[in-house]
């Protein structure tokens, strides 16, 4: 297998997953800057806030885990991911706003919750846009 094929396979399975960790890592820095270094409890609150957003949105889009999520063609995923700077920036912006306005015990769980919801909703719009505008999208 050529290096090009390995690169394509790596992108196919990882391109959607890179934006969210980058966003939450940046948010951790923002909340730390605004609220001070977290203690262990605040770190767990950060993870809980982010995890709750994924759990609720996954439950809602799969109708309480009873429906399978559709697969998008790789061309659509590549285009949608190329647009992900918008969902990343918006998610980080929303979390930053919470960090600026809230005290530390509120910011640590709520900032990642708001960031995750914003990121996921906009990422869905990016994929919808990509599906609509790409011939392989079938929309």
Low-confidence stretches are none
Largest beta-sheet details: none
Strand content: under 5%
Structural class: mainly alpha
Count of separate DSSP helical elements: 6
State the distance separating the first and last CA atoms: 33 Å
Give the rounded overall mean pLDDT. Answer: 85
What coarse outline follows from CA principal-axis ratios?
Answer: globular
Cα-based radius of gyration, to the nearest Å? 17 Å
Total number of distinct structural domains = 1
Portion in helices: over 70%
Question: What order do the SSEs take from the amino end to the carboxyl end, as H and E?
Answer: HHHHHH
Architecture blueprint of SSEs:
Blueprint: H1 3-14, H2 19-35, H3 40-61, H4 74-82, H5 85-101, H6 104-133
Q: Care to describe what's here?
A:
There is one protein chain. α2 runs antiparallel to α6, α3 packs parallel to α6 and α5 runs antiparallel to α6. The model has no long low-confidence stretch (mean pLDDT 85). The chain has one domain. The chain contains 6 helices and no strands. With 139 residues, the chain is mainly alpha-helical.
């Amino acid at each position: 297998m050529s290096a090009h094929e390995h690169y394509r396979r790596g992108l196919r399975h990882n391109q959607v997953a890179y934006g969210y960790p980058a966003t939450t890592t940046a948010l951790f820095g923002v909340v730390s800057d605004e609220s001070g270094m977290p203690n262990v409890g605040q770190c767990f609150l950060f993870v809980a806030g982010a995890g709750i957003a994924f759990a609720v949105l996954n439950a809602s889009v799969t109708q309480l885990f009873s429906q399978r999520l559709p697969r998008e063609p790789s061309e659509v995923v590549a285009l949608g991911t190329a647009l992900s700077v918008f969902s990343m920036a918006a998610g980080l912006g929303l979390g930053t706003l919470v960090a600026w306005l809230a005290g530390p015990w509120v910011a640590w769980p709520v900032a990642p919750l708001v960031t995750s919801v914003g990121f996921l909703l906009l990422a869905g719009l990016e994929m919808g846009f990509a599906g609509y505008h790409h011939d392989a999208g079938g929309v």
